[in-house]
Amino acid sequence: MEEQHQKFEELDDALADWADLGEIIQESKDCSFQTIYSPIRAFFAADSSQWEKFGQLKSHKERIQFLTRMKVVQNSLVDIVPTSEKVHEEPKPTIERKRQRKEPPQLSHGANKMYPNLSKALEVKRTSAEGRHMIAKQKILPGEVLIVEQAQTTSLFRDFYPTHCANCFRRVEEEELVNCISCKTVKFCSETCLRNSWPVHKYECRILDYIDSKDIGHMATLAFRIVAAQEFSFIVENVEKFDEMEPSYEDGDYISAYKQESNMALRPSGDHLKRCVTALILARLVKVLYFHGFSILLELCNGIVH
Ligand SMILES: [Zn+2]
Ligand SMILES: [Zn+2]
Fold first, then answer.
1. Which ligand is nearest to the CA of 180?
2. E strand or H helix at 297, and its extent?
């Protein structure tokens, strides 16, 4: 732990210079990605030598470090603060609805040894031309079930908040919905859905306007939720080892999500800039919410940019 502190001392210093706004609440502010991103983009557009330097950086860590030293980035990120009150307890639901849940189907041909959610009829391969991909190992008939997997995380489009459950996405009549009493924004179809969603929602509840803003993109929302769903201790203890850790490909395995194909080498500098700023926004949100007082920002950004 001590080593981590030293290693990222510079970054911590930069963060310490930003005002400690963790407990300041702002109820009506513009949380859109463009508001935060535009000044940074404009800065690079006006200074081609800085843009050139950014383009020459080879890793996420270098790019993130470069950005966090820039005043324009610090000024943009410092305004990110929670937009609703701190929540300590699970809100009491008002209506309990009993529903029959459908059981997921069984995999045809049994489970793949390495990828337990895949059928044995499939094989995962990797080539330089095609990257990671799947092929059929045997004849597959119409209607056979090849993948049955619990989603790592899910996200309901904001437009559907008033009409659909934020956990299971069922359309529900408005008078039947159970409200989150904290953010008063998302709704659930039942006590069960509220409870299932709570471990992650209790964090995002306070910063929903940032991660569900239209222009930040749904991948950013999903990335935040994957990190928010992890135990703090798991992230802190393993963050240095993420690259070496083997994914289990079982439901909820963080390393399986972390090691998704990123194709980073193929992306242009403009894309890197947007993703790095997104990562910094998300990392700032994570820090403000529940990693307060201990910065593992840089490593978190690495995970999120993936
Ligand atoms: Zn539901
Ligand atoms: Zn809420």
1. 2
2. helix 297-305
DSSP 181: T
- Give the alpha-carbon dihedral of 86, 87, 93, 99, to 10 degrees: 110
Ligand closest to 165 (CA) is 1
Residue 172 falls in which region: left (phi positive, over 0), alpha (psi -120 to 50) or beta: beta
95 occurs within a structural domain: no
What per-residue confidence (pLDDT) applies to 290?
62
| Distance in Å, CA 145 to ligand 1 centroid | 25
Domain co-membership, 117 together with 72: no
Residues 112, 250 contacting (CB under 8 angstroms): no
- Residue 143 maps to a domain: yes
Mean pLDDT of 71-76: 88
Expressed in angstroms and rounded, the spacing between residue 187 Cα and the centre of ligand 1 is 9
280: phi then psi, degrees, rounded to nearest 5: -65, -40
**The whole model's pTM is what?**
0.75
Q: Domains in the chain: how many in total? A: 2
Q: Which residues are near ligand 1, the ion (C-beta closer than 5 Å)?
A: 165, 167-168, 189, 193
Ligand 2 centroid – CA 165 distance (Å): 12
Which ligand lies nearest to the CA atom of residue 190 in the structure?
A: 1
The tens digit of pLDDT for each residue in 142-180 reads 999 999 998 888 888 888 988 999 988 999 887 777 888
Give the length of the chain.
306
Whether residues 75 and 211 fall in one domain: yes
Residue 63 CA, ligand 1 centroid: distance in Å: 40
The answer to whether residue 22 is domain-embedded is: yes
Residue 21 or 137, more confident:
137
**What's the gap in Å between 197 CA and the centre of ligand 1?**
9
pLDDT digits (tens, 9 = 90+) for 213-242: 778 888 888 888 888 888 777 887 888 898
Mean pLDDT of the chain: 80
Asked if 115 and 82 sit in the same domain, the reply is no
Q: From the CA of 88, how far away is ligand 1's center (Å)?
A: 22
What is the model's pLDDT at position 21?
Answer: 41
Q: What is the pLDDT of residue 245?
A: 93
Domain that holds residue 239: 2-86+206-305
Residue 33 within a domain: yes
List the beta bridge partners of residue 164: 171
Residues 215 and 250 in one domain: yes
If asked whether residues 111 and 252 sit together in one domain, one would say no
